[in-house]
């Protein structure tokens, strides 16, 4: 089922924190990735957090982010309808107050992430608090970020990372009232290798302990987690992390699956004389392509299956397999 209620998502994270497991929040930009994720999560008997960035909404809406959000939201709801698991939507890395307001007014997301991490502390607090106030009474959770993550994500770019200060984390949560806290421990947006990251696992543990001590316990979030090894993810789950964001991994698996398929069937798709115009392939040439291979639905099914395998694998790593609220 597609769940729009933020309080249900809060329960999801609370159970994960108590139970010592986490969820992978998965970014989508088009339907094949989304369907593969839903199918894989259902096979895992794990609830699913999908994520949309503004750029993904703009892509789906042919430049109109709100139209794209409505379209993808309706698609998600219809595909998730009748499934036993809960499917939630988080709006990821948003910065523009007007778009956040419009997104909330659609009634589609169960949470939004305000990314003011590139600003100075006071400005970050002020902007994040405004979003919390905006979402009050709307049953929409708010995720905010303290610290800076290296790399580029939806228009936010940083050449270096700034680790989250545990002391500042308490002040930030108390003053903003955010429901989830994204922290910086040395991960990177985009392509990175876990063994090459200068990870500070201790920061997650210190932030979690400090928040607990001050009565401000929150689910912690790790952005840029596609470069983490499975062992690193498992270790972070034990340090208060309940949500890992992944995007790059799915993009790579999508491209790799399609490339391997088309390479395997190149001779049945491309004519020997590759300079021939496509109309000549059908009109004049004695050679013809094999529709069993160039029909886009054929490769799309393979992409969906691969994405399904990936999320099932990740649900094993984070411990969320079999932990659905609804089964």
Layout of helices and strands, plus pairs?
Blueprint: E1 2-3, H1 6-19, E2 23-27, H2 31-44, E3 48-53, H3 54-60, H4 65-80, E4 87-94, H5 97-105, E5 111-114, H6 121-135, E6 141-146, E7 151-153, E8 156-158, H7 166-176, E9 180-183, H8 201-213, E10 220-222, H9 230-237, E11 241-246, H10 248-264, H11 278-283, H12 291-294, H13 296-318
Parallel strand pairs: 1-4, 2-3, 2-11, 3-4, 4-5, 5-6, 6-9, 9-10, 10-11
Antiparallel strand pairs: 7-8
Helix pairs in contact: 2-4, 2-13, 3-4, 7-8, 10-13
Estimated structural class? alpha/beta
Which range does the strand content fall in? 15-25%
Name the CATH architecture: Alpha-Beta Barrel
What is the terminal separation in angstroms?
11 Å
Note the main sheet. 8 strands, parallel, barrel
Query: According to CATH, what is the topology?
Result: TIM Barrel
Tell me the total number of β-strands: 11
Total domain count: 1
Strand order in the sheet with the most strands: 2-3-4-5-6-9-10-11
CATH class: Alpha Beta
Helical proportion?
A: 40-55%
Shape: globular
CATH superfamily heading: Aldolase class I
Structure annotation, total helices: 13
Order of helices and strands: EHEHEHHEHEHEEEHEHEHEHHHH
